[in-house]
């Protein structure tokens, strides 16, 4: 009999469960984006993910809980993309522009999770679910707060309102953007250019 320690078992089930969960989340994001929260059904989401309808409840106990998780994944994804885009970039206005480009590229061209977040939010969030969403939203938006804090702005500039205005303007592009006329990069640079011109004018 060998005295060597037993080889650890390969966590096949864990990997499988993780992959299935991600597949389910992708299917859910797609349906929330295309159908809206109210019209998206758990049965249709399960079918998209190649799962039995009842199996979906192994991962999430309700459609609202599933949407909250899609929301979280979308915010985490865009935060990671933004942080990566800022690596090695210097200059306060240059960093703000790069951040806006990253935000609009994800919103308008990329991540189905974040697009699903922007498409609609259900009204029946519980206190715990809302707290999770607010936590991840604030963790993302604090990056823009820091970027705006680094700018040399006129005395008295309300940087909180400036952040809300900038992010709101970028997010509104989701409702009117059509590929071909302008790129997300061009829109982002235009927004930052407008902002810089007006604020520098006010500071004169």
- The overall pLDDT average reads 86
Beta strand count: 0
The poorly predicted ranges are: 4-13
Alpha-carbon Rg, integer: 21 Å
- How many H/I helical runs? 9
What order do the helices and strands follow? HHHHHHHHH
Which class do the helix and strand fractions yield?
A: mainly alpha
End-to-end Cα distance: 86 Å
**Roughly how much helix do the residues carry, as a percent range?**
over 70%
Strand content: under 5%
Biggest beta-sheet profile: none
Described by the principal axes of the CA atoms, the overall outline is elongated
Summarize the structure.
By secondary structure, the protein is mostly helical. Helices cover 71% and strands 0% of the residues.
How do the helices and strands line up, and which of them pair or pack?
Blueprint: H1 12-35, H2 42-48, H3 56-59, H4 63-85, H5 92-109, H6 112-119, H7 127-149, H8 159-176, H9 184-203
Helix pairs in contact: 1-2, 1-4, 1-6, 4-5, 4-6, 4-7, 5-8, 5-9, 7-8
In words, what does this structure look like?
By secondary structure, the chain is mainly alpha-helical. Helix content is 71%, strand content 0%. It has nine helices and no strands. The termini are far apart. Residues 4-13 have low confidence and may be disordered.
Protein traits:
single chain, 204 residues, mainly alpha, 9 helices, 71% helix, 0% strand
């Amino acid at each position: 009999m060998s005295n060597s320690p037993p080889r650890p078992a390969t966590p096949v089930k864990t990997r499988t469960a993780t992959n299935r969960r991600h597949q389910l989340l992708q299917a859910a994001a797609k349906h929330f984006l295309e159908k809206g929260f109210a019209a998206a059904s758990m049965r249709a989401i399960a079918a998209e993910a190649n799962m039995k309808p009842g199996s979906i409840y192994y991962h999430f106990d309700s459609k609202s809980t599933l949407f909250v998780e899609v929301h979280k994944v979308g915010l985490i994804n865009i935060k990671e993309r933004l942080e990566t885009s800022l690596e090695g970039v210097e200059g306060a206005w240059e960093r703000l522009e790069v951040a806006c480009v990253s935000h609009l590229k994800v919103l308008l061209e990329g991540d189905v999770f974040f697009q699903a977040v922007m498409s609609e939010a259900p009204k029946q969030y519980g206190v715990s679910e809302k707290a999770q969403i607010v936590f991840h939203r604030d963790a993302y938006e604090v990056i823009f707060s820091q970027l705006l804090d680094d700018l040399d702005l006129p005395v008295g500039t309300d940087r909180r309102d400036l952040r809300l205005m900038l992010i709101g303007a970028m997010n509104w592009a989701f409702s009117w953007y059509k590929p071909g006329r302008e790129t997300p990069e061009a829109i982002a640079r235009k927004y930052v250019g407008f902002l810089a011109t007006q604020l520098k004018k006010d500071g004169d």
